[in-house]
Design goal:
CATH class: Alpha Beta
CATH superfamily: Transcription elongation factor, GreA/GreB, C-terminal domain
Largest sheet: 5 strands, mixed
Structural class: alpha/beta
Number of strands: 7
CATH architecture: Roll
Oligomer: single chain
């Protein structure tokens, strides 16, 4: 099954490319996840901020996900690694779940590997975050 490209703002794309290419990031992140995220970035459909559909998950979007198998519903904010705090529902874009949801649409079913197989979630809701509204939002630096 061929997946459609993820959709990103040009600003998010530039920041994420820099993050994925960073020596600091590569020293502390799973190389397979970085490779997969890099591949998604190279296939991404890029749009200007004012052209971004409201239902797309961007950096700092608040998202509600429903586990397809259990029905459990969870809400997170997708953030850069330095702002990640799972106890406060801030999900790093460099986590398996964060990388998986980036650029997808409300209604999409998304999966990522877990120890026991695959976790599959449906995107129930997407609320634009501060990065979507303010391009000068925090960007990781080397």
């Amino acid at each position: 099954m061929k997946r459609r490209p993820i959709t990103l703002t040009i600003d998010d794309y530039a920041r994420l490319r820099a993050l994925v290419s960073s020596k600091v990031t590569s020293a502390f992140s799973d190389p397979t996840l970085l490779r997969d995220l890099y591949q998604e970035l190279t296939r991404a459909r890029l749009v200007e901020l004012d052209e971004m559909p409201e239902e797309v998950i961007t950096m700092n979007s608040r998202i509600t996900l429903r586990d397809v198998q259990t029905g459990r519903v969870e809400t997170y904010t997708l953030v850069y690694p330095q702002r990640a705090d799972i106890a406060n529902r801030r999900l790093s874009v460099l986590s398996p779940a964060g990388a998986a949801v980036l650029g997808h649409y409300r209604g999409d079913d998304i999966r990522w590997p877990i120890a026991s197989g695959w976790r599959i979630v449906r995107v129930e809701q997407v609320e634009a975050g501060t990065a979507a509204l303010a391009p000068s939002a925090v960007c990781p630096k080397e």
